[in-house]
Amino acid sequence: MRTFRIGGIHPAENKFAAGKKIKTAAIPKQVVIPLAHYIGTPADPIVKRGDVVMVGQMIGQASGFISANVHSSVSGKVVKMDVQLDASGYKRPAVFIEVEGDEWLETIDRTPDIKRECTLSKQEIVDKIKAAGIVGLGGATFPAHVKLMPPPGKKAEVLIINAVECESYLTCDHQLMLEHAEEILVGVTILMKALEVNRAIIGIENNKKDAIQLFKKLAVNYKGIEVETLKVQYPQGGEKQLIDALLRRQVPSGTIPVEVGAVVQNVATTYAVYEAVQKNKPMIERVMTITGKDAPSPGNYRVRLGTYLSSVVEEAGGIPEGTGKIVGGGPMMGRSLMNLNIPMAKGSSGVVFIREAESIRKPVKNCIRCTKCVTVCPMGLEPYLLMAQSERNMWPEMETNRTMDCIECGSCSYTCPSNRPLLDYIRFGKSTVGGIIRSRTSK
Amino acid sequence: MEKLIISPAPHIHSGDSIAKNMYGVLIAMVPALLASLYFFGLGALIVTLTAVAACVLFEFLIQKYILKSEITIMDGSAAITGLLLAFNLPSNLPVWMIIIGALVAIGVAKMSFGGLGNNPFNPALVGRVFLLISFPVEMTTWPVVDPLATTYLDAETGATVLGILKEGSASLPAISDMIIGNIPGSIGEVSAIALLLGLVYMLIRKIITWHIPVSILLTVAVFTGILYLVDPQTYASPLVHLFSGGLMLGAIFMATDYVTSPMTFRGMWIYGVGIGLLTVIIRTWGAYPEGVSFAILIMNGFTPIINFYVKPKRFGEKPKKA
Amino acid sequence: MITMSIVLISLITLGVIGAVASIILFVVAKKFHVFEDPRIDEVEAALPAANCGGCGFPGCRGFADACVKSDELGDLFCPVGGNDTMSKVALILGKTAVAQAPKVAVVRCDGTCEHRPRYNEYDGVKHCFIAHNLYSGETNCSWGCLGFGDCELSCEFDAIKVNPVTMIPEVDDDKCTACGACVKACPKLLIELRKKGPKSRRIYVGCRNEDKGHITKKACDVGCIGCAKCFKVCPHEAITVENNLAFINDEHCKLCRKCVEVCPTNAIKEINFPPRKVKTEAVLND
């Protein structure tokens, strides 16, 4: 079985919500749709207070290259435009909509029939994906259409579908694959058409055997789609790691995957692409996992964007007793949430309840130079050294030690026997060094 | 929970700790300890207990009264230093010498640099080499194997394998005796099989990686093999070198010390090859019959330079075409 | 005899080596002599030798060098030594120093635990710059002080300390030299160098929150809600309100304290003023 070649860890999987059917969460009374996502500039609002909107209507226009359109996920009245605390921990602009009924735009095809044929041209597909505001649903929320437009001179050879879901606890992609396999495969063909490639590989980790079986069976009917079983290893869902695992090509430092002829899309993104292109349905809902060791009923929920996490969690049985920390996203790369009055965003792949005892960090000890952080680093960096340099503000040295290659997967902090906050310091150093590099190139 | 905790990712931890690793090493040393207790009896017991107790006590006293810092004797690192020091001593060494060795190991080589993680040289080896230089006679008088002996200071003595090689005085013991440990030598080094058992345990528990022990043993085997092929009369066979003296102990427990070994796999190879070469050079042409401790200490000194120049294999360094 | 010759030989050899070396040294010293203005040393001696970098130069020597080289002392100012030092420097160099009002650091946040409830507990590395990199803080206010004391670490004069009760840094006016290290250290840009004022009396807006009023109000009792009452009442046009936040310009402020009275949230701080008379009287007198 294949996996990436440098580093990697294998945390306890704890996939409690595996095999739980996707439930559709109730439509809340009010939604707060964030205009900003983790990456990129916030969208410009194109509605104002008092406007009546329908499900699927565009309310935010992308502003800038790395930005995505935002659509209303409910029908109702815009009550205010204000800032709202989101999963990033900062207050950012959002649109508050009071829900009235559930009126969808007429162009959206809501039938469950699978529509396989796609007669659109390459450019039309990309435009449709862009208009639908689809972003990478793995968590980084990078606009999907940007990846479909390789820079001039570069040509994609192969499309890689990231169905790895290497984060422990999360199961939303797994369940989506089981319930919407055909749609995902159609989505893959659409993406292949958009990229003009005739080969696509779906990489699935070996802990999802039912999904592997299903996809292997169905993929026979589609030309050029291969299904590859991967060894369970974190962070295999990282773009560069996945390419290395599947193609044995390593993306050079400071470049994007298309440099080695690969474009990676998440499996949930692929499903959203299918819905956008074939059903005219913009990015207004997604599947998320509500889970945790003590969660009363771990499960996968289809949630409208902008729903307060508190109402979804309520539906899933509420916050379990003894929760010390609530993580938005997976426990390795997700962000701990300040409270649950946070709207669901495009990148919210899950809510994980961490027990109080597990959420408090243990006291930091001396670095005993055990090499474990260097061994597990999937990018071949030296986390112990980068942390020491970040503590001492040695930015040029950090740059030569390739701190910008860090993918912030957290393997180093996870594995450190001295409980050293390696990634905290590296992340800070990375942002500072990034600023220095930007100011240097802009001069 | 009244207030939710917020902290940067990752939000889970492997649960690994310094103590877990250190106790893992201690468990890995148990087979060798049992072998030494069998072969050297009471003397081994006294030496081991004294060294461990002295090291732990000195660490406690220094942290409590001199550094006034957090007391970390429970993490097992002082016990390892004590046990390793004992493993490096003959079983008839007087108690007061062991205590001096422990003081040098903990006080000079470890705590004066800032405790665990900051010492440039392996503390147990510094203690051992200090004793070797200070008390050369006592440190090179080895009791002969006497299963479950009850003698301590007045044990009957004999020459080690390497001593015999150096002096050429007697015939070498059988290789099988060397593997089992039925030869004179310092407490922990004699039984190669027990030490290898410890290595397997540490590899399974992922406490250490295979690079350092393998590179050292391989280098010694190859280098002595070449010498043996050149002139089998003058030079001993690689097997004798591999299973005699402190090579196994050094390669498995001393050179692999976290703090004083390089941080990258490539660096570990350089380090291991260096130790292997130096060991054979000292054994074959040096004044001392045994050179593992010196070889490791010298390469400890090179570790910071190795760390500075030898970087891990970066992702995407040499993109390979599929 | 043999011993004698050994002594002689060594004496001669060493003597020759010494002579040759001294000649080389002499030649090198002459040839590569760098002229350095002796006034740099004099100026440096007059400086406080804090090497804090508050003047913008690397250490006191760098500042002395700049003073000697520049034609005017106008832009050059040693915040630690203040006007006294600068007049001494001016005397040495025969230039005129421009007197500057002494400054002091003020912390523009009063979000104590009492005023600004904490809803979360931060469990990462206890450094402001790391916390700031990830979160807006433990409270609802994303602008205010994080309270981990990067300013305290940066201060070389022991002048700024985080109060363990309020978790807000406090500046010791007497010790503060206005070197500006804490200003740079604060990731939330809360610390400002302001005129020390007569008898250390100062008025400033103790808030940096640019959110809309109702959001600020929810997060913190003493936040500036941008109501502009102070702006309207100020007779000296010293107050500006931008992005829902008032700012008092210390160049124009005459310390009349009218703004303090009208501020509905007590976000405007008055420091070192004598206790007020009864409020109605004060209004009448003004």
Note the overall shape of chain A: globular
For the biggest sheet of chain C, the summary is: 2 strands, antiparallel
CATH class of the largest domain in chain C: Alpha Beta
CATH architecture of the largest domain in chain A: 3-Layer(aba) Sandwich
Secondary-structure-based class of chain C equals alpha+beta
Quick structural gist:
The complex is a heterotrimer of chains A (443), B (322) and C (286). Chain A is of the alpha/beta class. Chain A is 29% helix and 20% strand.
Written description of the protein model:
The complex is a heterotrimer of chains A (443), B (322) and C (286). Chain A folds into two domains: 1-12 and 104-360, NADH-ubiquinone oxidoreductase 51kDa subunit (Rossmann fold), CATH 3.40.50; 372-442, no CATH class. Helix content of chain A is 29%, strand content 20%. Chain A has helices at 122-131, 144-147, 172-179, 181-195, 209-219, 239-247, 267-279, 309-315, 356-359, 372-376, 383-391, 395-400, 411-415, 422-442; strands at 22-24, 30-34, 44-45, 52-53, 58-61, 70-71, 76-85, 91-99, 158-163, 200-205, 225-230, 262-266, 285-292, 299-304, 323-328, 335-336, 350-355. In chain A, strands 1-14-13-17-15-16 form a six-stranded mixed beta sheet. In chain A, helix 11 (383-391) crosses helix 14 (422-442). Chain A is globular, with a radius of gyration of 21 Å. The mean pLDDT of chain A is 90. Chain B is an all-alpha fold and 322 residues long. Chain B has one domain: Orthogonal Bundle (Ammonium transporter fold), CATH 1.10.3430. In chain B, 59% of the residues lie in helices and 2% in strands. Chain B has a two-stranded antiparallel sheet with strand order 2-3. The mean pLDDT of chain B is 89. In chain C, a hairpin with a 6-residue loop joins strand 3 (160-162) and strand 4. By secondary structure, chain C is an alpha+beta fold. In chain C, strands 1-5 form a two-stranded antiparallel sheet. Residues 281-286 of chain C have low confidence and may be disordered. The termini of chain C are far apart. The interface between A and B is large, with 74 and 45 residues.
